Amino acid sequence: MNASELILNPDGSIYHLSLLPGDIANDIIFVGDQDRVPLVSKYFDQIEIKKNKREFVTHTGRIGTKRITVISTGIGTDNIDIVMNELDALANINLENRSINPNPTSLNIFRIGTSGSIHPAITIGSTVVSTLAIGLDTLGAYYNAEKMHHLHLPEWSYITKRHDFALSTFGSHFSEGITVTCPGFYAPQGRSLRLPSSNKISFEQLHSLEKDGYHITNMEMETAGIYILASFMGHKAISFNAILAERLTGNFSTESDQVVNNLIKDTLEWIVRLP
Prior knowledge:
This protein is α/β, with parallel strands linked by helices. It is 20% helix and 31% strand. Strand 11 (210-211) and strand 12 form a beta hairpin.
């Protein structure tokens, strides 16, 4: 791996994240917003590491004996491509001699994100676990992802799934569904401000789609990218979605901070109980 492929900073840290291998735990929480990182780490008993570069803010600490990292990814699967590849490099490449470690490390990746519901049964304030994810972005095309061939979705769209974490100890009620990962927030998700969207697929068409007993429930911008890269790299990923918007009714949460905080606490309590 030459210097233009595996780029390191002068201190030996990985290029975009500015992290060293010892800076990360095996259990890693993804949040999109950098301001959400301290909202997670405030529940740590101790914080060992705080680093930031660009939109990537990282805190690593402990709850009891469980070591946890929380990192902000920014928005979109283009950023997910950076974060997943660089975390994998930290876990599985010897940065000093640029060789792949013979015994791969599998990371646990937990996304705590916000999302909009497109299914009438999924209401504001609820939690959706993305059992499957459909990527409408093009990232999957670069990693030979399984193509999605339903409802005349773009030919490059792909489908992937979460790791089979046991959810029996997750404290609060949640729904499982199919999450659609979009390449933008406005027109790609059917929003129109001054510019019209050419997206001809209705929410009713989408939420009527069923696969493996699950319906499409929500839209966001990261989950499919996390899942496809985790599956190919040998990591374990799951995405928890705090529902802040109901796209069918046009409503948005008036208590979004509390909804997100509840999901943070539920997810941390569940992670600590994992073996």
